[in-house]
Amino acid sequence: MSLLLIFVDGLGLGERDVTKNPLARADLRWLKVFQGEEPPATLPPREVMSTDATLGFPGLPQSATGQASLLTGLNAPALIGRHINGFCTPELAKLLDGRSLFIRLQAQGLRVAFANAYSPPFFEGRNHLRSVTTVAAEKAGMTFRNLWDLERGEAVYQDFTNQVLIERGYPVTRLDPREAGRRLARIASAYDFTLYEYFQTDLAGHRQEMEYAVSLLEKLEAFLDAALGEVDLERNLVILASDHGNVEDLSTKAHTRNPVPTILWGKGAAQVASGIRAITDLAPAVLSSLSKDHWCH
């Protein structure tokens, strides 16, 4: 079994309110999820878990501590003493030592990949700020994919259409969301565990423009639909997870304390979902799922 984890930053479970929630306006199937509502029975099998992102800590949940909690299973804000926004701090980096999904899965002899492509400033040392996911991959000794990999179809950029890169002057090919989704699935098929990080949703939430957010979510829906269509869900598992709410409530620029959706498709989805109540439950669920499958084969 292979497991593809699609991390979508800033996607919460909000109310079905078209005045503030672009998820209520957009043309969606897979991502049409709302707080307190059961998912439609008309969709193919999936599990949707309302997942606590506050971790019992006051204040608004933030990306750095949320991602550390997702990747380690530790309650990062409680251990650090605050929610940390944006980038990885030395305190959070210590939490990642030997504890991230990347390192723990590698220790079991599993093949692990981070599918995101990085642009030249990262490799040239001009970008000194590191996300938690980046630091986790660095600590695991993983090779980062570049724009050459992107052009060869062996990576996906954080903006899977590549529009951001094109606007910055890089000579890369613009991708249709569906082709990008199929590409991600093909990359994941060569590994036991693959992580892909998408944070345009969080930026859209801060931007507070309904039309833009609706368009972005519809592209994400197409990307996800194509990836799911390419994965053999009889044998493999796809999980979509988030770190905190944001884009589901455009009435505020800030993050929200809403729960986040954890959505699972494929082999063992119900069993894995049954153990997920908070974002700290994701890493243990992934480890357990892949460990059992690894030793059974």
> Strands across the major sheet, in which order?
2-6-5-1-4-3
Beta-strand portion reads 5-15%
What is the total tally of β strands?
A: 6
pLDDT < 50 stretches: none
User: What would you report as the Rg, rounded to the nearest angstrom?
Assistant: 18 Å
- Choose one word for the global shape: globular
Largest sheet, in brief, is:
6 strands, mixed
The SSE order reads EHEHHHHEHHHHHEHHEEHH
Distance between the termini: 9 Å
Individual helix count: 14
Q: Percentage of helical residues?
A: 25-40%
Structural class: alpha/beta
Mean pLDDT: 95
What does this structure look like?
- Helix 10 crosses helix 12 and helix 11 (200-207) packs antiparallel against helix 12.
- Helices cover 39% and strands 11% of the residues.
- It has helices at residues 22-25, 63-72, 76-80, 90-96, 101-107, 120-123, 132-139, 147-151, 163-167, 177-188, 200-207, 210-230, 269-273, 282-296, and strands at residues 3-8, 47-51, 112-114, 193-198, 237-241, 260-266.
- The model has no long low-confidence stretch (mean pLDDT 95).
- The N and C termini lie close together (9 Å).
- It is of the alpha/beta class.
- The chain is built from 14 helices and 6 strands.
- It has a 6-stranded mixed β-sheet with strand order 2-6-5-1-4-3, sandwiched between helices.
